[in-house]
Amino acid sequence: MGVNMILLMAMVATNILSLYHLTTHVHSTPPPPPPLPHQLIQHLHTIRAAINRLARLNPPSSPTAAPSDLLLYAHIFPVASSCKDHPELLHKYMNYTPFALCPPDSSLAESLILRGCHPLPRRRCFSRTTPAAPTSLPTNPFSPIPKNAVIWGHYNCTTFNCFIGFDMKLEKSRFLASKSDLDLSIPQILQIGKSGKSVIRLAVDIGGGTGTFAAQMKLQNVTVLTTTMNLGAPHNEAAALRGVVPLHLPLQQRLPVFDGVVDLVRCGHGVNRWVPVMVMEFLLFDMDRVLRGGGYLWLDHFFSKRGDLERVYQPMISKLGYKKVKWVVANKNDSSGVKNGEVYLTALLQKPISR
Q: Looking at the whole model, is its pTM more than 0.85?
């Protein structure tokens, strides 16, 4: 009886020790590591997707493999995420001869940029130059633009007279006077800033064409960066020849300016109802990002349908919480405006100093 009791107690003790050991082992097991943040591998997945899709292409007139410089670039630098959605264009853009002249493909580059493939991958080729460089440039930004400083092979015309916005005799009077309530002149803008004890010294002009607004502000000792696309006309070249800085950017690209350093942002005719609503909203908040407190946002002749303005764009702009210095809506009286029931909006809005 005593031996049986001892054996029973030993068996119970052994089970208790085994249970304790198993319980301790389970609780001491370290938790699995957290998954890597998606942001850390996003660029790698984008690059791999672009290369894999390019590798699957097998058109009769092009090689199956991705261009070697695209593969090399993808290993060194990030590739814009939207590039993967247009592999044929990207393949063509990067299929060039390294260490030789770059192909005359500025229109191809803009096609990629407008589709969100921006910034474009760098290439190891030499940019083309004009046959003869000008020996001097006029100091007045409204002097005639020298013709020999443009590579005309990129365009259908061979003279500035073919394009709108290149006649300096007409451009030199722009932004200097108001012809209607929709207009804001530069003297008015500067006076508003002065009255509000707000300095205007640095500005961004979005969709600024040949840089006329920047040129006029330059005469007032205000520095303006102009975002512009060529779209079949030498807007960037003309702006540079006039002594202002063109930024070759699409509307969906983040402005390459630090936060809160700009006194004025102007949106020209390129910002209108044709811009997708979500792109427009991100653009407004990017402009808010670069504007300092007390800075001004100027929507210059923004056109849309009246119903869309009241239902979509006015609430979108109101989200910024800016003070309305000027807000004027008027009918767009040209043929397309009358047909589509469109209106113009000119608004000058001031960013709050503190939030």
A: no
